[in-house]
Write a structure and sequence with these properties.
14% of the residues are buried. The chain has a 7-stranded antiparallel β-sheet with strand order 1-7-6-5-4-3-2. It has a single domain, classed as START domain (Alpha-D-Glucose-1,6-Bisphosphate, Chain A, domain 4), CATH 3.30.530. It is α+β, with helices and mostly antiparallel strands. Strand 3 and strand 4 form a beta hairpin.
């Protein structure tokens, strides 16, 4: 199959430095990933802000009966602007995830994710993508959007409202 390109945009009701501080710590990925994926970080990342060359190992169960290790590398970091992670070992033939951040004014940050992914196994992978992988990837980002709303509620009467 050809690589897929997906784009997701989220408005986080917080200033850029606070938004960056949360998303630049790999330990927070568990707070953003749906429970049914059984996302578990294996690397010692608590309290560490990401940096170029950082390797993060996870264990995931993308669907019942299949657990796999997933290793990503943070390949680019531009503080308060963007970071990029690429899969080194894992369930995809390609996983290239770009995260962009842009201040929208007091108490608002736009976060844009551009994901390129490709499922392995040729025609069998294309069928799997069509049957469930694409839907699952979309579901993970939809769940993340819900988690962001829960973790960063709109501040009543504060600078987060327009």
């Amino acid at each position: 199959m050809r690589p897929r390109r997906l784009t997701f945009t989220t408005i986080v009701p917080r200033d850029l430095p606070e938004t960056w501080a949360f998303f630049s710590r790999p330990e927070n990925l568990e707070k953003l990933t749906p429970e049914d994926v059984h996302f578990n970080i294996l690397s010692p990342v608590a309290g560490v802000e990401m940096y170029e060359g950082m390797i993060v190992q996870y264990r995931v169960r993308p669907f019942p009966g299949f657990t796999t290790d997933w290793v990503t590398e943070i390949t680019h970091v531009s503080q308060h602007h963007h970071f990029i992670d690429d899969q080194r070992v894992g369930p995809f033939a390609l996983w290239h995830h770009q995260h962009f951040f842009r201040a929208l004014g007091p108490g608002r940050t736009e976060m844009t994710d551009i994901l390129h992914y490709q499922v392995p196994l040729g025609p069998l992978g294309t069928l799997a993508d069509w049957l469930f992988v694409h839907r699952q990837v979309l579901g993970i980002f939809q769940a993340r959007e819900s988690a962001i709303r829960r973790l960063f509620p709109e501040e009543q009467g504060g600078s987060g409202q327009q």
